Amino acid sequence: MSLADTLSRAKFKEESKGFRHKLSVLILIIIVIGYMALYGYLLYVSASSYGIKFEMKDFEDSQPTNTSLGIDGKVIVKNTHWYSADITDISIKMSLYTDDDVKIKTKTVTKKIIPRLKKSEIDLDFSFDLEDFDYDISDFMSLNQTDELEIKFEVSFTYAYVHTYDFEISMKVELD
Amino acid sequence: MGYWINWVTLFRNLITSVIFGLVIPYYLISYIDPKGFLFDLDAVLYNGIIFVIVYTIYGIFNKDTVIRFFIGCGWIVTLIYFYTLGNNFFTFYLPHCSFGYMCLDGSYRGIEFKLGYNYMWVVIATLSLKGLNILRHLIKPPEKKYKYLSLSDKFGKK
After folding, report:
1. Which stretches in chain A have pLDDT values below 50?
2. What is the pLDDT of residue B158?
3. Which CATH superfamily is domain A52-174 in?
4. Greatest CA span in chain B, whole angstroms?
5. Averaged in consecutive runs of 10 residues, what is the pLDDT profile of chain B (158 residues)?
6. CA B11, CA A167: separation in Å to the nearest integer?
7. What pLDDT shows up at residue B133?
8. CB nearest to A165's CB, from B117, B122, B129
9. H-helix or E-strand containing B58?
10. Who's near B151: CB < 8 A, 6+ residues apart?
11. Per-residue model confidence as pLDDT tens digits over A25-56
């Protein structure tokens, strides 16, 4: 008897028919409730994220000098509508690279939570002073020899505790 | 042979998969993103062909065979593959970097950017529910009302 014949004849015992019927109905109920909960939650998350508003405030770049280079500003997140959800584990990271892709310095601003029904502010202070550098000779030589700086922003956060978003923007600045 | 094949579900799955795996993405992506800024048409069509083959095979077998259960398990594995690579009907034809992780990159006016969206928990929940449904089909006693789907029985009698 071939495998195909064996499998085609594989059947459950007739006595178990009632039990299997009840079990299949129970599984069907779990599946229906599961799909309803899943799509219901996804609809809620989609609808609640639609009402979030971002505002950039007091953004200014300090004029670069021999000893400092910086960007100051605030991001205001309005997560205030009644069906909003918490935004957690926010991380904003800014890195400076030379044109040889040598990472010179990294600064990270983090915020644990932007609670629902609240307006929150995130202060950004990405200033790079001479004191921030650890006087590593290789960093110094890289910075001294580069013709352009690459500034990379990396932002990540979790919405409604389960959806994780991240985005990254790279900008290049030519040095005279 | 007539016992094994369900011609109705075979052709239903073939037509459905050709429409959603090849025809719709070809015309949709050619129209909304001809330069391939967001969508990778070649990858979408490649995955579309895999979708047509696998989904058609899934539709071949009769509902009361154990083989159908194994094919259902194979379908779960195929979905894991689709949710890992992206560029197919189940991932809105968008590219993925890993399992349940959508990623886009490009540049706008010289500014390079990358976007990522991790929805792994949604995928795991969906696959778990699909797995439960396959299990339900295996243990469920066959009912006469499904006979209307099986034209092979009628052909077999002739």
Report:
1. none
2. 45
3. Immunoglobulins (2.60.40.10)
4. 69
5. 76 95 94 87 94 90 76 91 93 93 85 90 95 89 59 52
6. 43
7. 92
8. B117
9. helix B41-60
10. B6, B7, B8
11. 999 999 999 999 999 999 998 888 888 888 87
Measure CB to CB from residue B136 to each of A27, A38, A168 and give the nearest one.
A27
In Å, how far are A95, B29, B40, B41 from B35, measured between CA atoms?
Answer: 31, 9, 9, 10
- Sign for the pseudo-dihedral over CA of A115, A120, A126, A129: negative
DSSP A32-46: HHHHHHHHHHHHHHH
Residue B150 domain-assigned (yes or no):
no
pLDDT score recorded for residue B91: 92
Token pair recorded at residue B68: 């159908």
Domain ranges for chain A: 15-49, 52-174
Domain span holding position B39? 7-140
Q: What is the 3-state secondary structure (H, E, C) of A61-127?
A: EECCCCCEEEEEEEEEEEECCCCCCCEEEEEEEEEEECCCCCEEEEEEEEEEEECCCEEEEEEEEEE
Is the CB of B4 inside 8 Å of chain A's CB atoms?
A: yes
pLDDT of residue B70: 86
- Residues of chain A numbered 96-125 and touching chain B (CB < 8 Å): none
Let me know if residue B154 belongs to a domain: no
Interface test with A, best of B134, B139, B143, B146 (most A CBs within 10 A): B139
The pTM score is 0.79
Contact B140 A168 (CB under 8 A): no
A151, A165, A172, A174: best mutation site toward chain B, by most B Cβ within 10 Å?
A165
CA angle A173, B107, B27 (to 5 degrees): 170
Find which of A167, A171, A172, A174 to mutate to test the B interface (most B CBs within 10 Å of its CB).
A167
- A8 part of contact set with chain B, CB < 8 Å: yes
